[in-house]
Amino acid sequence: MIGSPDGKTLAEVSIVIAPRSRPFELTVENLKLSAPEGKSAIDFGNVPGINYDIWPFNKSNADQPAPYSRTDKLLVSGVCSLTGGSGGAGVRVGDGVHLIIDKAASLSDANACLSALGGEKGPGIGGNSGFFSGSVSINGGTITATGGSNGVGLGDLTGAVTINGGEVTAISHAKHCPGIGNRGNLGGMWLNGPSSVQQLAGNRSLILPGETIVINGGSVTASADNYPGISAMSGMKYYSFSSKLTDYRQNFLGRLTINGGKVTARGSSADYIDNAAIQAAESRSTVEPSAP
Q1: Could you tell me if 188 and 150 are in contact, meaning their C-beta atoms sit under 8 angstroms apart?
Q2: Which residues, including other chains, have CB under 8 Å from residue 58's CB and lie 6 or more apart?
Q3: Any idea of the CA torsion for 197, 205, 209, 81, to the nearest 10 degrees?
Q4: 28-77: per-residue pLDDT in tens?
Q5: Considering only CA atoms, which of 120, 81, 74 is closest in space to residue 97?
Q6: CA–CA dist 123, 157 (Å, integer)
Q7: 73-107: per-residue pLDDT in tens?
Q8: Could you tell me if 253 and 209 are in contact, meaning their C-beta atoms sit under 8 angstroms apart?
Q9: Which spans in 114-263 are helix H?
Q10: Nearest Cα to 47, choosing from 13, 14, 79, 24?
Q11: Is residue 290 assigned to a domain?
């Protein structure tokens, strides 16, 4: 268990979970942390030895953690605040990591509060601005994820965002960045034509696919000042470039599934989207929307 002495913010400090062969569980209690430049406040680092070719990523398994994923846990107690440095996340989810965020044992959601704020270009909770990253499941707690400048609230992940419970709020104030999902431009870069696509197609680290978002329960609020609040859509959708990208991960345009819970989304105008609250390449729901 890690906490802050006397309730003070630990400045210029980053907690890094080193490469590991076994799942890791971290409990934070009343922790207030501000990371240095280039670092995330808590970094669940990459799992070594990942081979994507052994598990082709496609629409049929997009909402499942990869079978080689390491399942780590972040348990929350009290009131915790995590702020990433420039380029870092509040909580970074490394390549091959399936991170479960939950309240500590015997606590209510109200007594397990986590606020994660990304640094410049960093998400509140997610995979930083690079392509390779993991997946996140939120099972409980009062979780607020706010993106830094040019950062999403909860997302920028290769794997799925799954919300099973808790009070979850995801906020983005940045252009082309949703509250939940992957940013609308490709890895932070706009493409100027087919020649740009051909250059980027060979560099997978610059390509973000559409996000897979699954909401099974809890209360979810997602807002964005210059993009849809929830986005399960790759930026490639609007450029019709997907046919030029042959990698199976690059061609996945996104999916949103809502099976339960209360979902509130707010969006605002972007360059090519007019005040949409939610956008998705594919969507499905097993619940009926409530009347306004």
Answers
A1: yes
A2: 248, 252
A3: -140
A4: 999 999 999 999 999 998 887 665 555 445 556 555 666 557 899 999 99
A5: 74
A6: 10
A7: 999 999 999 999 998 999 999 888 899 999 999 99
A8: yes
A9: 194-201, 236-239
A10: 24
A11: no
What residue numbers bound the domain in which 73 lies?
Answer: 2-285
Contact assessment for residue 33 and residue 104, using Cβ atoms and an 8 Å cutoff? no
Identify the segments of the chain with pLDDT beneath 70: 49-68, 129-132, 185-210, 234-253, 269-275, 281-282, 284, 287-292
The per-residue pLDDT for 25 is 97
Rg (CA), the chain: 18
Domains: count for the chain:
1
Structure tokens at 123: 């998400």
pTM, full prediction = 0.85
Distance, C-alpha 280 to centroid of its chain: 16
Q: Is residue 33 part of a domain?
A: yes
Tell whether 291 is covered by a domain.
no
* Residue 108 forms part of a structural domain: yes
